[in-house]
Amino acid sequence: MSKEITADQTARYQQALAADPTAKVLERAVSHQGILATSADYASETDMTPVLSIDLDTGKVANQKQSGRCWMFAALNTMRHHLADLFNLSDFELSQNYTNFWDKFEKANYFYENVLATADQPTSSRKVAFLMATPQQDGGQWDMLCAIIEKYGIVPKSVMPETYNSSKSSELNSTLNLKLRKDAVTLRKLVADKASDADIAAAKDKMLGEVYRLLSFSLGEPVHEFDFEYRDDDKNYHIDKGLTPKSFFDKYVDWNLSDYVSIINAPTADKPYNHTYTVEMLGNVVNGRQVKHLNVTMKDFKALAIKQLQAGQSVWFGCDVGQSSERQKGIMDTKFYDKDALFNIDFSTTKAERLDYGESMMTHAMVLTGVDLVDGQPTKWKVENSWGEKVGTKGYFVMSDAWMDEYCYQVVVNKQFLPDDLKKTQETEEPTVLAPWDPMGALA
């Protein structure tokens, strides 16, 4: 039976607070300065100085501005680091707008197919409600960007630069989602009325044509052929004519994307280590690359990231960036805020508990570009963010190793660094399918 709060209870709480000689001091501090500023322990700054034993030079940071494309910026940053080294181009960027266009176009089709697949379920079903909550968004996963590049290639930013709607995406997202939900009504009605496959296909084709027009007006129409004209860091002029997005990727990045695999650390009971997982209804390109995660211990997780950094290559990673993180100073450290001491409350939970109870999930993707090894063990990590140069140290953050333990969930590494047993598992094991709302399906 439910119990209400009684007057006696409230009186006891008031008396306990009145008996605390520090209560009024803390009340004034917290109410005027806020919880974070009052609980901040700036001694953390000393430990998080940006000096590391392995520190890759990756140039200026990019800026995703008012958009949720961190996963895309981070992935393209790892590729541009490689390209910059090969072609002496330190301040070069790949077009995030080009991949953004095709991602949104493909997500629309992916949504339509999921609407049709669930058309026999009521709108009150959890899967249908999940689909309609956010038909598409800016976020994504590493494998989803690979699916786009494998189908459409990539281009330099100079060929397809940012637009108002790519840099400030809320208007485009709300308009596109308005259309997708309206189209969902139409598609579900067609199924309910037992329309023919040909009629449903024709309706969907018309919808996709409208999505293409909406995206073209908002982001610009993607290029199909272009000339790549640039000066390298030594001021030498270059021009490469008649490229396509796929030939540009093959010539200037030249990665076998299947070599790069997603490694996660999810210490929950439903995901045993050293096995693979995918997430139902998570993706963008229909019949494209599957999102596939290999779950490993945190020890193995960090060892793989270190191996790739030692080989001179940066590492895409996903984390819960808002936890114990000071944006302006660019510090991510579990010791930076001490809310337990401030309120005399134990806020501690395990990583598994935070995942299971909705306190944490992957919210942001960035790039590891360095690590400080002391006696062979990591103590802190250098992070390239995509929030411009006005935060952190010219856009770079420092992350404590303890913070990585608690709030990092995913890295992408070349499978050459995997031990033979894990490599075999990643390549051959059929992944366990997780529910669409599983935290490992969170989009960065």
Overall mean confidence score, pLDDT: 96
Distance between the termini: 41 Å
Fraction in helix: 40-55%
Biggest sheet layout? 12 strands, mixed
Which outline best applies? Answer: globular
Question: What does this protein structure show overall?
Answer:
The chain has 444 residues and is of the alpha+beta class. The protein is 43% helix and 16% strand. It has 17 helices and 14 strands. It has helices spanning 7-18, 23-33, 35-39, 44-47, 70-87, 96-117, 126-133, 142-152, 164-167, 170-192, 197-219, 245-253, 298-310, 339-343, 351-356, 401-407, 420-428, and strands at 54-55, 226-231, 237-243, 260-264, 275-279, 293-295, 315-319, 325-326, 331-332, 364-374, 377-384, 396-400, 408-414, 432-434. Strands 1, 4, 5, 6, 7, 8, 9, 10, 11, 12, 13 and 14 form a twelve-stranded mixed β-sheet that branches. A hairpin with a 5-residue loop joins strand 2 and strand 3 (237-243). Helix 6 crosses helix 8 (142-152), helix 6 runs antiparallel to helix 11 (197-219) and helix 10 (170-192) packs antiparallel against helix 11 (197-219). The longest helix is centred in the middle third of the chain and has 23 residues, at 170-192.
Features:
444 residues; 43% helix; twelve-stranded mixed beta sheet; two-stranded antiparallel sheet; alpha+beta; 14 strands
